[in-house]
Each structure stands twice: as C-alpha cells, then as structure tokens.
Write a structure and sequence with these properties.
Layout lengths: L4 E7 L5 H14 L5 E5 L5 H11 L9 H25 L3 E5 L2 H11 L4 H12 L6 E6 L2 H10 L11 H17 L3 E5 L4 H23 L1
Parallel strand pairs: 1-3, 1-4, 2-3, 4-5
Helix pairs in contact: 1-8, 2-3, 3-5, 4-7
This protein binds P1-(5'-adenosyl)P5-(5'-thymidyl)pentaphosphate.
Length: 215
C-alpha cells in the first residue's frame, strides 16, 4: 500500500490518545516527515462522521445491537480508508490515527463478547490484509481511564457501560499487543510528561524500521 506509513494510537477512554496523536505528529515533523495526515475513528469523512454520531447517540429509545455496532464500525473504517488513508499513503504521506481496527476487536469483541467467527470475516471484507506499520497501545486500568473521561463532563453511550465492560476491553487490548510484533505498549497511567517521553522513545526505537518500510 503506497509509500507512506500508517501509525495508530489505541487505548481505553481517557488513556490520552488525543494528546498522544499530537506528540507523535510533533516528533515526526521534527524528524523530517513533510506530509502528515491525522484521522480519528469512527469518523474522518462526512459519511464516517455521520456514522460516528449515530453510533454515539442513536435515535432515542433504540438499542444498538452489538453486531450492528460491528458493521457500523467497519463501514466507517472502509470509507475512511478509501477516501483518506489509502490515497494519503499512496502519495507518500504519513497517517496518524486515533483508534483503528483494534478498537473493534477490543470493544465489540472483548467488551460486547462478539465471537471471532462473526468479526473476522467482516474485518477481512473491510480491510483485506491492510494493517498499521506501528501501533502504540496506551495501557491503563479501566477505572483510571473512566475517571479521566468523567472529569471532562457528560459521558456518551459507550462511556456509560459498566466497569467490567472496560476491563474486558482492556484485557483484549493487552492480548492484541502481546500478539503483534508491530505494536508497543505504553504505560498510560503515568503522569503526562512521562507518557510523552515514553512515546518519543518508542518512536525513536521504531524509526529505523519505519524508514525501511517507506524506502
Ligand atoms: N469505538 C470506537 C468502538 O466501540 N469500536 C470501534 O471500532 C471504534 C473505532 C469513540 C468511542 O467509540 C468506541 C470507543 C469509544 O467509546 P472517542 O471520543 O473517539 O469515542 O474516543 P474516547 O476514547 O472516548 O476519547 P477520549 O477523549 O476519552 O480518550 P483519549 O483521547 O484517550 O483521552 P484524552 O487525550 O482526550 O484525555 C482525556 C483526559 O485525560 C487527561 C487529558 O488531559 C484529558 O482531560 N489525561 C491525563 N491526565 C493525567 N495523566 C495523563 N497521563 C493523562 N493523559 C490524558
């Protein structure tokens, strides 16, 4: 897929993903990356943003089935890939994403309990073999992440789930990170300055491999 590089930030609510995206982009710019594209999931195109709004605030009184969540997430993801990510990578840009495929595996798989037999064919149809060059997983206890999210004000539909839901999500994330050679885990329970340093060190360590990938 093109000559660019695809970096994804993953983690629970309140892990500090938005802040991490900014840190990663600053670091890449300082190291000579000339075109950077930031995206978030779900979202990033008008259609995908409309799906995000429906996903977060469905029509009053209508329960969203877990399998519907799965299909909405991959529909939004494919649209973002077609409209933004793949064209950017094709022209040599670096793309930094706030959430991607692991969010579905962790939230709809781990959290909602959907079986791999349902998820994986949908994932294959939407992504094929496309995967990030680097995933930075921000790991923290679910209660700490939720407390940070609560500190920002009103909670959305997902944030109102029970703590055990987020513990299952975290557990799936941790397993995905262990299983993926292109992923690094960052301790996101540390103070922000320490998380920033850890992200910069992770990028420095991955830099030779990422440059090889775009060469
Ligand atoms: N979803 C998404 C699925 O279920 N399936 C999917 O496939 C996808 C793609 C998206 C929701 O959709 C679900 C998951 C989500 O529930 P969102 O708003 O895009 O929602 O994502 P959230 O995770 O909800 O976004 P947050 O803003 O809560 O999380 P961030 O970006 O990780 O956190 P951030 O950077 O905004 O920080 C939150 C607060 O914590 C503070 C920040 O200053 C901020 O106030 N903070 C720290 N404080 C102390 N120490 C640190 N180290 C800190 N880091 C951040």
């Amino acid at each position: 897929m093109g000559k660019g590089c695809f970096i994804v930030i993953e983690g629970l609510e309140g892990a500090g993903k938005s802040t991490a995206v900014a840190t990663v982009c600053d670091w890449l710019q300082q190291h000579g990356v000339s075109e950077l594209v930031r995206v978030r999931e779900p979202g990033g195109t008008p259609l995908a943003e409309a799906i995000r709004a429906l996903f977060k605030r469905p029509p009053e009184g209508e329960r969203v089935a877990p399998a519907t969540e799965l299909l909405l997430m991959y529909a939004a993801r494919r649209q973002l890939l077609e409209q933004v990510i793949w064209p950017a990578l094709e022209r040599g840009a670096w793309v930094v994403a706030d959430r991607h495929d692991w969010s579905t595996l962790a939230y709809q798989g781990g959290g909602r309990g959907l079986a791999d037999e349902l998820i994986l064919p949908v994932r294959q149809a939407a992504l094929g073999e496309f995967r990030p060059d680097l995933t930075l997983y921000l790991d923290l206890p679910a209660d700490l992440g939720l407390a940070r999210a609560q500190g920002r004000g009103q909670l959305d539909r997902i944030e109102q789930e029970a703590l055990t839901f987020f513990e299952r999500v975290r557990s799936r994330y941790q397993q995905l990170a262990v299983d993926c050679p292109q992923a690094l885990t960052i301790d996101a329970s540390q103070p922000l300055a320490s998380v920033t340093t850890a992200l910069q060190q992770a990028l420095a360590g991955s830099w030779p491999r990422l440059q090889d990938a775009v060469a």
